[in-house]
Model the fold of this input.
Amino acid sequence: MGTVKLQGIVIGERIQGESNKQIVVLAKGVGRVLLSARGARKAKSKLLAAAQLFCYADFVAYEGRGFYSVTQAELLNSFYALRTDMEKLAEAVYLAELTDRTCPEGTEQDEILALLYYALTVMEKGILPPQMVSRIFELKLLQISGFFAPPVCAVCGSEDGRLFFDWQEGAFLCERHHTPGSILLHGAVRRAAAFVLGHEVRQVFGFNLAPDALQQLENLLGGYMEIHMGLKLKSRHFFR
Done:
């Protein structure tokens, strides 16, 4: 027990009573942590600004028996512009929920924290369409979490010729080894996967896709997460 300092992004919030709330923070060096913010919903609360969804902030908290209670908070970045555009807001809510659902509590997740920060920054500034940002985020998140392999044949390792994807196996397959239920990858999707999986977090938001390729990537990642991770979040399709 004692005072701890945490820096991270608010990825979830839950109302408690008339003026309190709990916030879920993905914190540097700590991972996903639940904080109790007493009085944070009051208009004059010193915690009000930082205890909002998407906010990147420094928190000072008292560690009790199995819980943290916020005593101070300094806002570093509110990502305010995400709240002024419905599509950006919908996709940002989805990224926050996906992060909350996939990051275990008490396990350091600094690479995912950096990925989320870059994703929200790119989305807020309008550098890429919000849906494109979400697909890149999903792909890199799956790789960091140890779920997604590079786009080469899972059987022979071949990079030549056409490449397919098997939903049930969750694997890329070459023309020789592809299964009846696998799908032929769009060339742009193949290149996109190779780019994201082959670069560091800060570099992955460096391309865009045409609508047909983006749709295939969306279907591929959505199906993969549903089959292999048990994830089918309503917020993924909320805007549409």
User: Anything to note?
Assistant: The mean pLDDT is 92.
